[in-house]
Amino acid sequence: MAQVDAVIARRLDSGVPLVGDVSRYIISAGGKRLRPALLLLVCGALGYTGAQRFNLAAVVEFIHTATLLHDDVVDESTLRRGRATANERFGNPASVLVGDFLYSRAFQMMLDAGQMRVMEILADATNVIAEGEVLQLMNMHDASLDEAGYLRVIRSKTAKLFEASARLGAVLAGSPPALEQACADYGQALGTAFQVIDDVLDYDGDAAEMGKNLGDDLREGKATLSLIAAMQRGTPAQRDLVRHAIENGAVDELDRIVAVVRDTGALEVTREAAAAEAQRAIDAAMQLPRNPHAEALLQLAAQLLSRRA
């Protein structure tokens, strides 16, 4: 990861000072770096030790950071990773345009790999992510969204870059198609579980630990799995309360909504869904050669369920 950070620092260089200021602001905030770590772990598990793993790990982090910059503008978010979002600090225009810079810089860096397959994977991933963003926008304030519709959004918006990161590791290692697919399946399942747990924490987390405001999803009118499960399991009055909150982005009743989510067992339902995805990731990782890197992938999937931030 130190090597990846060195690539990131070098490729953030721009003749336009504001580009570097905004990029460094959001990247220096830290974050879990899960996507680049996933790519590195898959490379390690499959025996690839070339320098392109550092370059492509930086690429997926740039793509992820670009989506964060755009997301925070669309969602009108003010807090991320415990401090003001880039749009809150620098304004919406700068955030959008620097997000565009990071996307274009990522595509410049993809060329360094010299493989059309790498370009194909990342071009497809960025396109699917953009579709997922639009799909989520269309679903805002829609209380009729079901579990299948919710999963379609997060598999496009979040899990797709996890999937691409894991698949890239297999491609760099020259893996056969079946093994490449197992890595992609691992990434998709891990990314899905990650987002499901992230949505749980909006109703069962600690704002200080998470570094974002609780209730943000509700304010944005997002029908996450916890709310969908609460409406399915709740009384008519509880369903009406949750439906009204989703349709109106009403956070004034947040305490009552949280109580409904907890009382109906919706959190348990959501955690079970995340556990099923984590198990799917574990099953996929079992197809990799046995070594410390593959063991770390198994542990990552298992420990995801206990995250609190």
Note the overall shape. globular
CATH topology: Farnesyl Diphosphate Synthase
- What's the name of the CATH homologous superfamily? Farnesyl Diphosphate Synthase
Q: Tally the structural domains.
A: 1
Query: What's the helix count?
Result: 17
Could you list the spans in which at least 5 consecutive residues all have pLDDT below 50? none
Query: What string, H for helix and E for strand, traces the elements in order?
Result: HHHHEEHHHHHHHHHHHHH
Strand content: under 5%
Mean pLDDT: 92
Keywords: Magnesium, Metal-binding, Transferase
Family: Belongs to the FPP/GGPP synthase family.
InterPro entries: Isoprenoid_synthase_dom_sf, Polyprenyl_synt, Polyprenyl_synt_CS
Pfam families: polyprenyl_synt
What topology emerges from the helices and strands here?
Layout lengths: L1 H10 L5 H11 L6 H13 L5 H24 L3 E2 L2 E2 L1 H5 L1 H19 L5 H24 L7 H11 L1 H14 L4 H28 L2 H4 L5 H4 L5 H9 L2 H13 L5 H10 L2 H20 L6 H12 L6
Antiparallel strand pairs: 1-2
Cofactor: Mg(2+)
Protein name: Polyprenyl synthetase family protein
InterPro entries: Isoprenoid_synthase_dom_sf, Polyprenyl_synt, Polyprenyl_synt_CS
